Structures are given as structure tokens and as C-alpha cells.
Amino acid sequence: EAMHPRLLVIADDLTGALDTGVLFSRAGVRTTVVPGEDNVTGPAGPDPAVVVVDTESRHLPPDRAGSRVASCVRAALARGIERFYKKTDSTLRGNVGAELCALVSASGGRELFFVPALPKAGRVTRSGVQFVDGVPLHESAFARDPREPALGSSVEAIIGRQCGIPVVTVGRGADPEPLMARAGRPLIVAFDAETDEDIEAIADRLVK
């Protein structure tokens, strides 16, 4: 019996797409990486469990980046895929707000859970602020990026520049349920995390 894809991963560049796809593949999950939002159906042959799409949208204007993500989501829903993972840069470069917003809107979701930390690379989130190697993002080397300098360190503010969906911050080990219960509308739930154990604990909580 053919198995239909169960998860769509959306990355804004090829490096992110491959980095994510290889993790599923190493875990023994049949995965395919495809270019462009028009290729969500993937190549001919047996369906993978996970489809990873590279939208190449990091350096696009925000509205175009959001449109590409929305197209991916709609194509995935038409194919019966109902679970989504949005890969973002851990220094929050690109159109993070526009793309998260598009994912929530196009999927009809109520909550989007966002974990921007990558502790192994020195990127952690503390009290809603993104740090790189111990300094706030806007004071790091990424503030001097000639193409996309970091203009701030607040996860909520960075998302809010391109997205009108409210963002709430969940502290380390805190329960997000009370925040979500009070929202009554779509919400982006951003988690603090400073260690791999923090991220594993978040994953365990969300699976439940």
C-alpha cells in the first residue's frame, strides 16, 4: 500500500532544506528535497514520508516570500499533508515573519510553535531575545551582514515587523497552555531554549 507524505518541511534556502532533510534521512525516514513551491508533489515514484521544499525566498520582498510559502501549504493540503515544519535561520535572517504568517494563514492553523534556538551553534533564546555566542543578535557579527544585517534581537519584534499575528514567549520549562487558552485567535508561540535538553523537552511537550 502506498504511503502518502505526512510532513512538509519549508526552507527558505537550499542549505536549510538539505540540513533538515538529511536529519530525517539519517533517522531512516524516506525523504525527498525539491526546489520551488510548484514541486510539492515531488518526483515520480514511491511517495516519501517527508517532503522538503526549498522556496529560495530568503532574499525576496516579504510579500513574495509569503506567497511562495502559502502556495506550498495549499499544494500540500491538496495532497493530504496536514503537518508542517517551517525551517528558519537561527539568526532570524530572511523573511521570518512573513513566512510564519503565511504558514498560519494558509493552513488555517490556530497555533504555530516556534523554536528559534540552535544551541550547538551558539544560538540561544533567553526571555524572548536571540543570542549568538553569548551576545544579543543585534550586537553580533550578523549585525554587520552587508546583505541582511540583524536589526534587533527580540524574537517577537523581528516577527512582528512582517506579521500581524500575536507572538507570545514561553520561558524555559513553562507550560504554553495557559497562554494559548487566553488567546482566542491564531497565535505564534515562541519558546526560550538554551540547551539541547531544553529543545528535547519542548518536543516532548508538543508531542503530547
Describe this structure as you would to a colleague:
With 208 residues, the chain is of the alpha/beta class. Helix content is 32%, strand content 20%. It has helices at 14-26, 62-78, 96-107, 155-160, 177-183, 196-207; strands spanning 7-11, 31-35, 50-54, 84-86, 111-114, 123-126, 129-132, 135-136, 167-170, 187-191. The strands form three sheets. A four-stranded parallel β-sheet has the order 2-3-1-4, with helices on both faces. The protein has a three-stranded parallel β-sheet with strand order 5-10-9. A three-stranded antiparallel β-sheet has the order 6-7-8, with no helix packed on it. β7 and β8 (135-136) form a beta hairpin. α2 (62-78) runs parallel beside α3 (96-107).
